[in-house]
Design goal:
Layout (H helix, E strand, L loop, with lengths): L2 H17 L13 E3 L7 E6 L2 E7 H6 L2 H13 L10 H14 L9 H4 L9 E5 L5 E4 L4 H4 L12 E4 L5
Parallel strand pairs: 1-3
Antiparallel strand pairs: 2-3, 4-5, 4-6
């Protein structure tokens, strides 16, 4: 997607939020910034001197569908609302309103698969559920990788590490 197309989608998302009375900031930079280094996040809302800049990953800007880009832009635009710098109750309420009005699937986090993007990050560890077999990729060591016994899968099963390269 070109910078001009991204900027038009940002303007659309801002207009959509305002149309359903979500109090987004009037100080959002109209140009989307593309981050070529971002590998684990798709978007970012940067506040500087009371003004906001919305940033998207290069991967999303290049390979994401228009729907995926709109969803990430909407997520970031909601962070410009008063009291929404985090993913608290107010932000979640606004996200639910955007989802209901426009068919988005805005959530606290997204992943490559949900956005229809290829994931070329190197997987060094697989954390696997012993009950349902669900596999969780990890690119680097973390408390989950070092101590899987402290965590549980969504199904309640115990976790173990496979393909452990560095231990």
């Amino acid at each position: 997607m070109t910078h001009r197309e991204l900027d038009k989608l940002l303007a659309l998302v801002i207009a959509q939020a305002k149309a359903i009375k979500i109090p987004v900031s009037d100080r959002i930079c109209p140009q989307v910034r593309v981050n070529r280094r971002a590998r684990t996040r798709f978007g970012c809302c940067i506040r500087r001197d009371g003004a906001y800049t919305i940033e998207l990953s290069d991967l999303l800007a290049r390979e994401g569908s228009e729907d995926a880009v709109l969803q990430v832009l909407a997520h970031e635009v909601l962070h410009t609302c008063y009291g929404c710098s985090n993913h608290g109750a107010r932000w979640k309420g606004y996200a639910q309103r955007m989802n209901a009005a426009y068919g988005f699937h805005i959530s606290r986090t997204d992943n490559h698969q949900a956005l229809g993007l290829p994931d070329d990050r190197p997987v060094r560890y697989w954390v696997v559920c012993t009950r349902c077999g669900h596999k969780i990729p990890r690119m680097k060591r973390s408390p989950l990788v070092d101590h899987p016994e402290r965590y549980r899968c969504k199904c309640g099963g115990a976790l173990r590490v496979e393909n452990n390269i560095e231990r």
